[in-house]
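User: Could you write out the 3D structure of this protein bound to 3-methyl-2-oxobutanoic acid? I've included everything you need below.
Assistant: Certainly. Input first, then the structure.
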Amino acid sequence: MAAYIVEDTKKITTQRIMQMKKDGKKIAMLTSYDYTMAQIVDQAGMDIVLVGDSASNIMAGNLTTLPITIDEMIYHARCVARGVKRAMVICDMPFGSYQISREDGIRNAVRMMAESGADGLKLEGGEEFIDTIRGIVNAGIPVMGHLGLTPQSVYKFGGYSVRAKDDAEADKLLNDAKLLEQAGCFSLVLEKIPAELTKKVCQMVSIPVIGIGAGIADGQVLVAHDMLGMNDSFKPKFLRRYADLHAIMNDAIGQYITDVKDGSFPNETESY
Ligand code: KIV
């Protein structure tokens, strides 16, 4: 597999991300929740590192993204921000941090920006949170929208199936995308929607659209642990696996146990 050659070492900003769409350059985004992974992802040449609330599932073992707290998201984002030099770091606003009121949402966004070291925030939803999103942008915070399958609403949807397959939901998504652009979002994630609808959104809005399970867009995002194959049972159609780390780690750890048990580790060169 070929390494990606990074063209420059200059910090990625919202302006550069928006310019990439104008220049027809694709945007690569990947999750990280800790310092070591963030360093590897950044050094590989990633444009955006997402401190997703998927940390709730991947790091904490929760069934959904709902239980993760603001304090926990700030902790993960601080770890990531310390490991990243070039990429833009975006942190998810967790469930409950912006749903209650506009004022509460702005207050939590300001706190998350001040304490996390992130370069911007992402939050789920469209028209229903548009005043809050406008307020956060007006506070000087770059906001990435998120439409389609919005995992914080999993109990409303009744699962993680493809969204916006019918005309009514597709029309609402198109309207929401327009509203997010007008509210000042610098980019937008579309999750698990039909590829044709993603194409329409990409043509309709001037801000970059980053897809996950949404077909071709201005950029793509995946969860690092999924694309690295760390969970051998998660195999949705949209996921391309670039490694089988589950098998590699299992072999390495198994070998270590064997070496300890049979006394071959440590040997003389590994001893003082
Ligand atoms: O939390 C997350 O990892 C995300 C991506 C799946 C887009 O929101």
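DSSP finds eleven helices and eight strands in the chain.
User: Perfect, thank you.
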